[in-house]
Write a structure and sequence with these properties.
By secondary structure, the chain is an alpha+beta fold. The protein is built from seven helices and 13 strands.
Length: 361
């Protein structure tokens, strides 16, 4: 390899390593963000914030409620549920009768009656969990609260058990009373409930798409480095046929390590590297492996193109046997590509209708 090619080879290797490091760092950061202690800490911070807001709302409601008309004397702006708002709602009881409410989703529960002023507590109903704080004034009891988790007796595409957007906690983490591993406390220090992480595991599919793109680019850069570096030992640069063979074996070795070792771990845990979308054989066990093998095939094809041409311009006689062999090889490659496309349709969840382009999904 010439000195310029040698420098170019190391640049390709550096590019591959940078892309691989980005994938690795992203997976490590995602795992760090999804550790139970991190999720529980952020959730606790959100509970304290929502509790403070509910406490202020309860005091405001107790001082601005028209007991005769049984409506607030002033209009209170409602910001709704969202990442920046816990969606505060208001309830007013007189004795054990509910006389005012502003959110039809909230079902009254026995815990709402008889609470001391300023006490924070949690209420679990059939449709979810709620955090509340009570305030008393005369015979009226004022409650301000916030939805924590929405639950449904029957789930479908549109109704799914989930936490309110303000808390941003995975639905697999369950609130339980007494036996959870992570206790949650209110602003006043009272126990609300615990978080159970028994059924929780991080979702690797959230970032799998663009991580696969980075990994494909890094693999392509690594293959380019391999091709340039294989010309160094044993004067392989002067023996292009043998160089192609060594390059192909090196690529096959790298792909075998990636496939059988499941590296990178985060990508191989996603559905792109599972039989969920596609599975055909040990050589093509998933859609992600299909894409990596396609990159390897393209890299090998580009390497084959560097073989010196034969014919009159090359100072050699055209060999009919060699020409026939190349023709047979091209036909075999064409048939192989057609089989791979057919296999991608027959053994996967990919919908491919060649007679109706508008039907491609």
């Amino acid at each position: 390899m010439a000195n310029g090619h040698r420098k170019s080879g190391w640049r390709w290797l550096a590019t591959a390593l940078v892309l691989f490091m980005v994938v690795w760092a992203t997976e490590e950061y995602r795992d760090y963000r999804n550790r139970p202690e991190q999720l529980a800490r952020k959730f606790q911070e959100r509970i304290l914030t929502a509790g403070e807001m509910a406490g202020r709302e309860g005091k405001w409601l107790s001082g601005n409620f028209d007991t005769a008309k049984r409506v607030p004397a002033a209009i209170r702006s409602y910001t709704g549920d969202g990442p920046d708002s816990p969606g505060i709602f208001h309830l007013v009881f007189r004795g054990d009768s509910l006389v005012y409410w502003d959110d039809n989703r909230v079902l009254p529960c026995p815990e709402m009656i008889g609470q001391d002023t300023g006490r924070h507590f949690a209420c679990h109903q059939e449709n979810g969990w709620y955090g509340l704080v009570a305030a008393r004034k005369g015979s009226f009891r004022y409650l301000a609260g916030y939805p924590i988790r929405l639950e449904y007796p029957f789930q479908n595409e549109y109704l799914q058990n989930s936490y309110a957007p303000f808390f941003n906690l995975p639905a697999a983490v369950l609130p339980v009373v007494g036996n959870g591993s992570r206790p949650v406390k209110a602003v006043d220090g009272s126990y609300l409930f615990s978080l159970s992480f028994d059924g929780f595991s991080p979702d690797p599919d959230a970032t799998a798409g663009w991580l696969l793109i980075l990994w494909l680019a890094g693999t392509a850069a690594l293959f380019r480095f391999l091709y340039l570096i294989t010309g160094l030992p044993f004067r392989l640069a002067d023996r292009p046929g043998l160089r192609i063979v060594v390059f192909g074996l090196a690529m096959a070795g790298i792909r075998a390590v990636q496939c059988f070792a499941g590296f990178p771990r985060g990508l191989y845990a996603s559905q792109l590297f599972s039989p969920a979308f596609y599975s055909s054989s040990a050589f093509l066990p998933s859609l992600g492996d299909y894409a990596l093998n396609a990159v390897a095939a393209v890299a090998f094809s580009l390497a084959v193109r560097t073989l010196p041409a034969t014919g009159a311009n090359g100072g050699r006689r055209f060999n009919a046997l060699r020409g026939t062999a190349w023709l047979v090889l091209l036909l075999a490659i064409f048939r192989g590509v057609a089989s791979l496309v057919e296999d991608l349709v027959m053994n996967s969840a990919v919908s491919l209708n060649m007679q109706n382009i508008s039907g491609l999904t």
